[in-house]
Sequence to fold (395 residues):
Amino acid sequence: MYNIDHRKSSKTVEIKDQAGNLLKNTKVTVKQTNRDFLVGVNGFDVMMYAAGAKTDEERAFFKNRVDKLVDVFNFVTLPFYWGMFEGKEGITLKDNYIQAVSFLKEKNIVVKGHPLCWHTVCCDWLLKYDDETIMQKQLARIRREVGDFKGLVDSWDAINETVIMPEFDKYDNAVTRICKKYGRIPLIKAVFDEAIGCQSGAKFILNDFNTTSKYEKVIEECLEAGVKIDIIGIQSHQHQGYWGKEKLLDVIERFSRFNIPIHFTENTMVSGDLIPDYIEDLNDWQVDEWPSTKEGEARQADEMEEMYRILFAAPSVQAITWWDLCDGAWLGAPSGVLRKDGSVKPVYDRLKNMVKNEWTTNYETSTDENGILHLEGFKGKYDILVNGETIKATL
Fold:
């Protein structure tokens, strides 16, 4: 079992006044302002607050949700689904997304775009083109989005759910067409190469819900083909029940062997009834009402805590993203950390305590007789407050 020592660091810092004099035996306050470890959530509500709300009442409704988001999370995934972002060819929602991204960056929140290439929520207007043209337009879409949001969006799900992509048969779509024509690995490589060529400083993620050996094989083939995967993305939608410690540790161990950082990109735990085991595709579960229950909320909080503590301790894991912020989003599930009305559930309070009290470093101390501060705590950025002045530091 892992421990969390690797999440911490230490260094010595000389503390001086503006004249350059060492401040010996002087009281200082150490305050962590940001954490290296990313605790995330999807940003659908941020989109509505920053660019989608049409009335003051709507804006106030989403502000309540977003204020709670900002208080806990330091990482947000924004929905760059192609069919949503460019519903009509040549007409994009770029300006709306710039507003949302700018809001998040002002709050010192790391932003990820999801995804650059996916067979679902694709553009119907692409279907009128031949495969070669679709491929050209897919790569052009990557150049446009990565280029337009350079310096604003820190990472991207480059391509999503490739294990199923060439066999996907729920409906016709342009991306499955080009995946069949060019092959899974050549498509993945083309997407990654295009994205990296546009913004070498960003991180590009291979993301999938399939955690079997099939996904491991895709990763192996990608690496053999020279695909430069920055991060392995693992979805963990648990509408049919918590994976449990044993499965979680197994998944971490199997995917850690690639020595590539891991993000748990889409984590879901419900606080109501579970989807029956006989349902193979979660999208097939359609119910009129899916309420959150008191018992379910207690279970959700307990399961989240166990899972997040395991992931926080695992050295290969760099981020965990909760999916969704509020109940009633994807599948109408009671999967949020907030209820539909924006009130907090036990899982929110539990996570907030872990993030802000247990995994964040704040303390008071003093410099030694040589004006040295022995700074130690969780990795991230710090403000050192002394005599009314602020000194910046990083662990």
